[in-house]
Amino acid sequence: MTILESALLGFLQGMTEFLPISSSGHLVLAETLLQFKSSDYLFFDILLHLATLVAVCIFFRVRLMNMAVALFSFLQKRESTDAERFDRILFFALFLSTVVTGVLGISFRYRFEAMRDHLTLVGAAFLLMGVILLATRKCRTDESSESSSLPINIWLFALIMGLAQTTAITPGISRSGTTVAVALLIGVSRRFAVEYSFLMSIPAILGAAALEWRHAKMIVDMTPAIIGFVVSLVSGIIFLWLLVWLVQKERLYQFSFYLFALGTIVLVYSLT
To answer: CB within 8 A of 224, min separation 6: which ones?
Structure first.
């Protein structure tokens, strides 16, 4: 792998991981059109995912630190402030979402990933993802409340978000797009929808990396690996910021037009 190739793949990972267009679906297209197997570069793929994980941690570092402080206060059995109670409840809600994703993801992982061999299904998934994003066009969430306000039933919300994240195992279904869209359709604030979605991605990425790590072989030279990691990290922060901005401006649905076009092209290509 050349430095240019590693930089390009790092950029694509940083872009597609955060924009609601499905990184796994685009990887399937790359495998088909460029005739390469991502399994041959599994170590490099894990490295790029860890880079985007670091990007999330940097972007939401304040919330992560606040949750750590709230948990420490809880373990020390000290009296908690309202802010600490919020962060503690948020942590346990994220834990519940992660359990739901983990149990269902491990149970149905291979069935969903089998779709990688069927380009027609990937094209259909792109179209479905477009419909999900388009549904957010008329969403009018309550932004007048404080950004730290929780949904009325946080535990039901956590279950639903865990289920939504599980669908991202399907190539062509975007994890960020689905979870943010579902949160908006439920009616939570735009800022909370994005924050919850990406905080929930931290254990999901770690878990996926842990499952794949034992199969990975380090066949990439150190220099391309470092370049790919850095490019993925930097581009990830940029595109995460862009997604937050687009959600705040109520423009998430605009990606649906790209997905409709892409899904149609993939279907026509696969059928002909």
So the answer is: 1, 2, 3, 5, 6, 44
